[in-house]
Structure formats: structure tokens, C-alpha cells
């Protein structure tokens, strides 16, 4: 879709796609929605342009205007989602630590050796996930969080169904729900790559 004649400004970044153009008649402002490779990950940017209507079209100067990223709803929700991650993994670490304090160094000795080793490691893995999510290693932290929940739900479902351990009757549905939340929210909290354009603004 070509730019209308009303817009005579040169963009500061190369534009690969013009998504939408709308004219605000009250303020004679044109809002342009574009996609730019400099934005990173095909992000959508808004531009507000106020043409110099008093000058002839051919004599209007070309003016540089900055591009500012549109605040996405997912960006605003990311701290909330990450807070839920940290809270849930913190609860898991607390529960496993309590088991060690109450039942000694082998609180899961009643289970098969492989499951005992996994449940024992969860206290360490939960703490590592929390530390990574709160640091600059958020990407591997998100991947580790998803992997832990997949393994945890699989192991506990096996203990409930195959080993007939009724104590997991409540834990498995709750953990499966949290697993669905993690997998569903992962694309929305995945950090985008920082481009050279971001460093300049």
C-alpha cells in the first residue's frame, strides 16, 4: 500500500511493510503504522506525523522524526507472568525443603530410585529457575522452567496412575494446570533480541 501524498516525511529506519494509515481531522495528524526490520522481530511501530499543510505539496520539506515502539499488552503483562513463575517455583522449593526438614535427607526413599533422585533434585532445580528468571539468563530460565514442569507432571502422573500413590491425586491436576500456563505464556514473556536501533534510542 503506497504512502499517501499527504505524508512527505522520510522515516529514520527502512520500512518493509506499511500496515495502516489513518488521518485525525481535528489535529491534521496522520498516524502511520509500519513494520521495520530495525525494530526487531517484525515489531509494529506507530508514527504520528503532522504535515505542513500551509505549504504546497511539492515544497514541503522532508523532516526526520523519531520512531517510538508501541507499548504491547504482552510487555505490560510480562512482570506479572514472571512473578507467577517465581511464586509457583518458590512454593515448590519450599515444599521440598520442608520435606527434607521433616523426613530427613531421603524424604522420598519410598519411591523408585529414579523418581527419588528426580524429586530430590527439584529443590535445587526450582531455586535455579528462580535465579535465572530474575537475572539476565531469562531465556534459559524459561526453557528450564518448561522442562521441569513437563518432567514433574510426567513423573507424578506415573506415581499416581501406575504406582497408585493417592497422595498425588490433588498435586497432579494443579501441576498440569501450571504446566499449561507455562507453555501457553512462554511466547509472550520470551525476551526479544536487542537491535542496534534500540541502542540508539
Question: What does this 3D model show about the protein?
Answer:
The chain is α+β, with helices and mostly antiparallel strands and 201 residues long. The chain has two domains: 10-69, no CATH class; 73-189. Helix content is 50%, strand content 13%. It is built from five helices and six strands. The strands form two sheets. A four-stranded antiparallel beta sheet has the order 2-3-4-6, with no helix packed on it. It has a two-stranded parallel sheet with strand order 1-5. A hairpin with an 8-residue loop joins strand 3 (29-35) and strand 4. Helix 2 runs antiparallel to helix 3 (138-161) and helix 3 runs antiparallel to helix 4. The longest helix has 31 residues, at 73-103. The radius of gyration is 26 Å and the shape is globular. The two termini are 28 Å apart.
